[in-house]
Amino acid sequence: MFDELYQEIILDHYRHPRGRGELEPPKITQEGFNPSCGDEVILDLRLEDGRISDIRFHGRGCSISQASASMMTEAVKGKTLAEAHALIQQVLAMVKGEAEGDPDALGDIVALAGVRNFPVRVKCATLAWHTLEEALRSAT
Amino acid sequence: MATTTFSIDASEIRRQFPFFQPHPEMRSLIYLDNAATTQKPYSVIEAVSNFWAHHNANVHRGGHGAGAKASELYEAARQRVAQFLNAREPAEIVFTRGTTEAINLVASSWGEAFVKAGDEVIITEMEHHANLLPWMRLAEKQGATLKVWRITDDGRLNLDDLRTLLTERTRLVAVVHISNVLGVVNPVAEICRLAHDAGALCLVDAAQSVAHMPVDVQAIDCDFLMFSGHKAYGPTGIGALYAKRSLLEAMPPYQVGGGIVKTVSWERLVWSEPPAKFEAGTPPIGEAVGLHAALDFIDSIGRATIEAYEHELTRYALERLQEVPGLRLFGPTPDRAGIFAFMLEDIHPHDIATVLDARDIAIRSGLHCAHPLGARLGGSTARASLAVYNDTAHIDALIEGLHEVRKVFGYV
Questions:
Q1: CA 20 to 30 Å from B391, out of A103, B26, B41, B280?
Q2: What is the pTM for the complete model shown?
Q3: ipTM for the complex?
Q4: Beta-carbon separation of A37 and B380 below 8 A
Q5: How far apart, in Å, are the Cα atoms of A94 and each of A137, B224, B304?
């Protein structure tokens, strides 16, 4: 059953995170926490000409929260704010089971749909995306 | 694998719990999250249900027999708690929503009246937020100093460290009886004695101990002690505060409202005697009745018997946990309670819990409402915790599950 949750692509992002690290200033920093389980995702991003020109994450947490953050940094780098917003909404809807994920638009991220059957893990998958949403809201 | 004969037949005990009976729509669960809350025996559920069905009325009010009966049941529950803790009299027992509310009551009522600027409160590094945040807030409000009694590397408290922390300004030492993370059983009687020698009071958070070992407030000689019903096979929303009568008499009310005054007019206000003084509003009557039944359940087995059995089970668990490569257990061994917080390789505890959950084994993961302790230990931990209905087969399933966790995360 948890093969769906712990797909190879997720474990790969967990073991070899992309976009892990911090940015030099100027940057926007946004912290995200799941206090109940101790997951932590801290995003550093830079906005230039209405695009996310660079984004990194650090922090600690479970495989789902960290793999999700890793996939997200890959996916949103270079996107306009509107594109990033649209992607955030699509991922959140998919993870919560409200909509099917579009593999063409989401790529690897569709693997996160596996958390649907694990209600207690939805928060882990959404943490990075909510944190990005918060960062973009406070930046604009 | 187990060769010893155990003093309790846990399957016999599980028969008294609906949660462990087969259910057409539910998978049967190996429940190892007892430090969070225990399951409830039929006797508790029936007592609560019987109260709501046949004896529901408000207490201490109304000129009818049903009200008198409800009052009688509520006061009988108080008497039962007093007997359970070996308090001198039922008036030393105040019903609260649980441990958290009881500590908040003491911090607000006693604390704001008796802890002044420059005074000190000592708490330990292993406290749950319930016995940490009320004192942080009190210290800030009163301009008092909060001193932290650090733990040793193996998760114990060193009494010599307390001796160096205590001063003539110390008003209170607040300590947990059994840590909800480390499983350590603290020497609360000695701690109380040291506190008293320094002129301070001593508060014992007994949330994790009352259902697992005998707890005698006169033998401990604590000034305050509290526990929650739901961690002792009883309902949520009910717990008890024990305090010495002289303290309750000197303390102002916590919340004010119905049922806590002798007389009130625009000119004059006279508070009721304790414990009524601290129980404003309609109390959780059905829950108190349920707590009464829960304490009866515990004593039907016997706390010394439960302690001995859980000790045997703990020894077995410690042995078997050692077999899992890459497992780091926190807290002292071998003398400890049946609460096991651990880390496994670099696998996040939440991932451990999910893989076990898929095998119908319930444990907890995270910081266990003890963030400063979590920081000392290096982050989140997975936690398995025992109750009297667990047995060696449950521990075997846990160990097998942990081997599976290692496999899923590529450690085999």
A1: B26
A2: 0.92
A3: 0.81
A4: yes
A5: 21, 51, 53
**A62 contacts in chain B (CB < 8 Å):** 348-351
Asked if residue A3 belongs to a domain, the reply is no
Q: How far away is chain A from the Cα of B241, in angstroms, using its nearest Cα?
A: 27
Q: Which residues of A touch B365 (CB under 8 A)?
A: 37
Listing DSSP states for B327-345 in one string gives EEE-S-SSS--SEEEEEET
Confidence check: pLDDT of B2 > 50: no
Mark whether B369 is an active-site residue: yes
Residue partners of B167: CB distance under 8 A and separation at least 6: B120, B198
Which single residue is written with the structure tokens 């399933």? B397
Q: What does each C-alpha distance from B38 to B41, B294, B304, B387 come to in angstroms?
A: 10, 11, 19, 7
Q: Report if residue A131 sits inside a domain.
A: yes
Nearest CA in chain B to A119: B354
Residue in this structure with the two tokens 């600690």, named with its chain if needed: A60
What are the chain A neighbours of B369 within 8 Å (beta carbons)? none
Tokens at A3, concatenated? 């093969």
Give the CATH number for residue A24: 3.90.1010.10
Per-residue pLDDT tens digits for B339-365: 999 999 999 999 999 999 999 999 999
Put simply, the answer to whether A38 touches B409 (Cβ < 8 Å) is no
What 8-state DSSP symbol labels residue A88? H
Indicate if the pLDDT at residue A36 is higher than 80.
no
Q: Going from the N-terminus, what domains does chain B have, and what CATH number goes with each?
A: 10-37+302-408 (3.90.1150.10), 46-299 (3.40.640.10)
In this complex, do A63 and B409 lie within 8 Å of one another by their Cβ atoms? yes
**Parallel, antiparallel, or unpaired: how do β-strands A28-34 and B381-385 relate?**
unpaired
Chain B CB contacts of A65 below 8 Å: 350
- Residue B176's DSSP bridge partners are B205
Instruction: Kindly state whether residue A1 falls inside one of the protein's structural domains.
Output: no
How many domains does one find in chain A? 1
Q: Which amino acid is at B336?
A: R
* Nearest residue in B to A59, CA atom: B379
Q: Which domain holds residue A25?
A: 8-139
Name the closest residue on chain B to residue A1, using Cα atoms: B358
Confidence of residue A42 (pLDDT cuts 50, 70, 90): very high
Surface-to-core class of residue B329, CB atoms within 10 Å of its CB (0-12 exposed, 13-18 middle, 19+ buried): buried
Residues near A75 by beta carbon (within 8 Å), at least 6 away in sequence: A87, A106, A107, A109
CA dihedral B368, B374, B380, B382 (to 10 degrees): -60
Whether residue A2 is contained in a domain is answered as: no
Whether the per-residue pLDDT at B159 is higher than 80: the answer is yes
Spell out the alpha helix ranges (H) of B243-325: 245-250, 285-301, 303-321
Of B349, B354, B410, which has the smallest distance from its Cβ to A2's Cβ? B354
